[in-house]
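Sharing in case it's useful to others searching the archive later.

Someone asked me privately for the predicted structure of Lipase, so I'm posting the question and my answer publicly. Question first, with the sequence:
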Amino acid sequence: MPIPTPRRVLTAACAAVGALVLGLSTAPAQATTSLNYVALGDSYSAASGVLPADLTSPLCLRSTANYPHVIAARTAARLTDVTCGAAQTKDFTEAQYPGVAPQADAVTAGTDLVTLTIGGNDNGTFINAITACGTAGILSGGQGSPCEDRYGTSFDDEIDARTYPALKSALRGVRAKAPQARVAVLGYPWITPATADPSCFVRLPVATGDVPYLHALQAHLNAVVRRAAEETGAVYVDFAEVSAGHDACQAVGTRWIEPLLFGQNVVPVHPNALGERRMAEHTLSVLGLG
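And my answer, the predicted structure tokens:
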């Protein structure tokens, strides 16, 4: 057998490399399928007050910088965004405003991913508690716990008696329309710190003893949202740990939620653009899409 010359070896090697390159270039490309993504929910999902505004549905105060848009951009998903400020669970199956279809109408058997925040507006939980405790805080000069003294467990009782069953019903309806979809239910990031920050009173005028009261109320709501999500086969995205230290009492650039007074958003006590991005990033991480 003749011994290969260096020239023959080089020629053979080049031919092999060329064949490999040709094979790689002509191999069939792997098909990539974009997620069919439907975003439902209230103002925390719509990012009410964050610019730029989505002018396709002005009544909903929806932003094109909300966390669903961030998720869609990161995943190249096909997004249908029907989030709407002030939405309640009933608005999944009823028209919230004239010309605004029930949110669940956007969900179909072909939907791959659904995200949402919901429950905070049922029974007026958020707005009633913040308004009541803010008013009581101003009248008391920030002292004591006038809001808790007056309302006690009433907000919590409404959450258990009415919000929880409404959440389960709404989530079951979404699951029935898209049985193969991943449904991610986001908790609400912290609005208040766990304990009072006296320097925050001018921006969030809640009495010292009512700050932990509101914090506990939000924790209770989130626990009920989590329970409803888990009992209907949805993924709960927990913000209790990651949003700590990013409440409305923190400085600009740190806070995810704007305060009641002297904030930077048109809509107070709601996530700002940074908060929406962080909500998107944590959701992507929990879902394994980030």
